[in-house]
């Protein structure tokens, strides 16, 4: 497997532990670096490999030497290797420097990491990752994969991301150069300043579901100068989409939604050489998931429970913030409107997950995986007001929901008045009131919290292999496929029940 790009991601909590330890002497004004090890799990996208830094293993007495610089003793590495093997994780070596911002390496740094790389690959099966922290907490990072017999090569990471309460990204200038100011973006720059715009522009944003909401979200990103946008959707334009699908016209019926939107985004993008990637895939398939794992932020613009579940897993296991939103119209039996709600929120460790927020029901995921949601006779048997039957939507509602999603994203990146989390927002069309809930959290039984930061090693199969039909249908699915699917679902729920019981008794 060859990956062109590398990145590291961690939660605000992990970053805080690292800063406290690595900068402890420097903050007291002492000319003393420090070091420590951490454990990580791989997160493999289509073109990018990310290390999800999960757990810091701080040194105890007689495990390191401090001499202005810092060096670890063999017993420290032995203890860390044991921890890594028992947790099925890789090892990262971190140290601090005396200047702020992204950090390069001294000759000694290179020698230490290069000579440590072989034993770490041998013990964990994963390459060593080296990170260096500047005095302001900024981090640089590199992977040390084996490229030949006894040959290890340094591969710099384009970015190191901190997510959760914070959203901080340190970019490597060489791999992710600062965008140049453009007259076209003058008003955007003046809204939040150069620094925030330079972060925003370099975030790889993924839009999952390019329907009424997704198309508007994607358009907003392109206009705001975002350089890399991935569109992920396997669906094609149908006649009944035309009342609310931003970029589509009658001529586009039958074309992929990604292609229709992508064509326009390339024209409207304000970034130089905007990279709009089209993935005619479902995020519930292996390849669709991999496309999503290349992104720094994802927008969940899907209307089905299964892709929401996949994105929820991505937010918690792979630490990619998922901005989720949707529209919910309530109609009276006589056909008049009772009300409508739309809203937006971000799923990421530290905030509530989509399952705990009630944004999808795992029971409905099972129905969808069995293909029942594509079975008209099954849908017809559901009560008139069942959530799975309703698909009313209007361009104006989608516009408002997309706006709320974009503002959730901007809050996280730009932090107006220092606030990065405006809470779970719900707008009520009838009363014109907006609820904003900053206190919602996951339940104690939350599976996604339990397996936070596990990356590719999240223990449940939430996606299926690519070779299965993109749209699973009950008819035409061979018996063995149905059987395999039901066994998987059974295992999934058994896993859930097992972990719940474990916690209850413990
Ligand atoms: Zn150094
Ligand atoms: Zn949860």
Chart the SSEs and their pairings.
Blueprint: E1 5-11, H1 12-22, E2 35-44, E3 48-57, E4 64-67, E5 69-72, H2 74-86, E6 90-96, H3 107-124, E7 128-133, E8 139-144, E9 146-148, E10 151-152, E11 155-156, E12 159-163, E13 168-171, H4 186-202, E14 204-208, H5 212-223, E15 228-232, H6 257-268, E16 275-279, H7 286-293, E17 297-300, H8 305-317, E18 322-331, E19 337-347, H9 362-369, H10 376-381, H11 395-414, E20 424-428, E21 433-437, H12 447-450, H13 479-505
Helix pairs in contact: 5-6, 5-11
One zinc ion (ZN) binds next to loops.
Characterize the structure shown.
The chain has 506 residues and is an alpha/beta fold. The protein has two domains: 167 residues, Cytidine Deaminase, domain 2; 314 residues, NAD(P)-binding Rossmann-like Domain (Rossmann fold), CATH 3.40.50.720. 33% of the residues lie in helices and 24% in strands. It has 13 helices and 21 strands. Strand 7 and strand 8 form a beta hairpin. It is globular, with a radius of gyration of 24 Å. The C terminus is likely disordered. The structure holds zinc ion (2 copies). One zinc ion binds next to loops.
């Amino acid at each position: 497997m060859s990956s062109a790009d590398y990145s590291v991601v961690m939660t605000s909590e992990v970053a805080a532990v690292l800063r406290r330890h690595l900068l402890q002497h420097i903050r007291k004004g002492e000319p003393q670096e420090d070091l420590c090890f951490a454990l990580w799990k791989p997160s493999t996208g289509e073109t990018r490999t990310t290390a999800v830094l999960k757990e810091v293993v701080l040194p105890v007495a007689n495990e390191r030497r401090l001499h202005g610089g810092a060096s670890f003793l063999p017993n420290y590495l032995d203890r860390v290797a044991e921890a890594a093997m028992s947790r099925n994780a890789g090892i990262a070596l971190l140290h601090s420097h005396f200047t702020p911002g992204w950090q390069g390496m001294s000759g000694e740094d290179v020698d230490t990491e290069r000579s440590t790389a072989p034993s770490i690959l041998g013990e964990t099966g994963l390459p060593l990752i080296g990170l260096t922290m500047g005095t302001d907490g900024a981090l640089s990072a590199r992977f040390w994969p084996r490229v030949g017999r006894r040959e290890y090569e340094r591969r710099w990471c384009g970015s190191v991301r901190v997510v959760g309460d914070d959203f901080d990204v340190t970019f490597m200038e060489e791999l992710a150069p600062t965008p140049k100011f453009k007259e076209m973006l003058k008003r955007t720059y003046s809204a939040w300043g150069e620094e925030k715009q330079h972060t925003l522009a370099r975030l790889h944003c993924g839009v999952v579901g390019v329907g009424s909401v997704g198309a508007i979200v994607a358009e907003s990103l392109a206009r705001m100068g975002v350089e890399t946008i991935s569109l992920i959707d396997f669906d094609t334009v149908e006649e009944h989409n035309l009342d609310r699908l931003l970029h589509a016209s009658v001529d586009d019926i039958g074309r992929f939604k990604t292609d229709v939107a992508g064509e326009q985004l390339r024209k409207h993008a304000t970034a130089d050489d905007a990279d709009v990637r089209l993935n005619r895939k479902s995020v519930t398939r292996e390849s669709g998931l991999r496309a999503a794992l290349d992104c720094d932020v994802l927008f969940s613009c899907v209307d089905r429970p299964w892709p929401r579940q996949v994105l929820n897993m991505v937010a918690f296991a792979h630490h990619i913030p998922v901005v989720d939103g949707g529209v919910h119209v309530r109609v009276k039996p006589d056909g008049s409107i009772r009300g409508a709600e739309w809203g937006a929120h971000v799923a990421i460790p530290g905030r509530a997950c989509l399952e705990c927020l009630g944004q999808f029901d795992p029971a409905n995921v099972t129905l969808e995986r069995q293909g029942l949601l594509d079975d008209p006779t099954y849908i017809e048997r559901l009560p008139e007001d069942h959530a799975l039957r309703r698909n009313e939507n209007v361009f104006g509602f989608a516009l408002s929901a997309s706006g709320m999603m974009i503002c959730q994203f901007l809050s996280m990146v730009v932090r107006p008045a220092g606030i990065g989390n405006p809470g779970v927002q719900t707008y009520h069309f009838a009363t014109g009131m907006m609820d904003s809930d900053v206190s919602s959290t996951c339940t104690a039984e939350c599976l996604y919290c339990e397996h936070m930061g596990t990356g590719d090693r999240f223990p449940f199969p939430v996606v299926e292999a690519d070779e299965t039909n993109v749209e699973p249908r009950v008819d035409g699915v061979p018996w063995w496929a149905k059987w395999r699917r039901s066994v998987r679902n059974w295992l999934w729920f058994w896993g859930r029940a097992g972990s719940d019981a474990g916690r209850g008794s413990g």
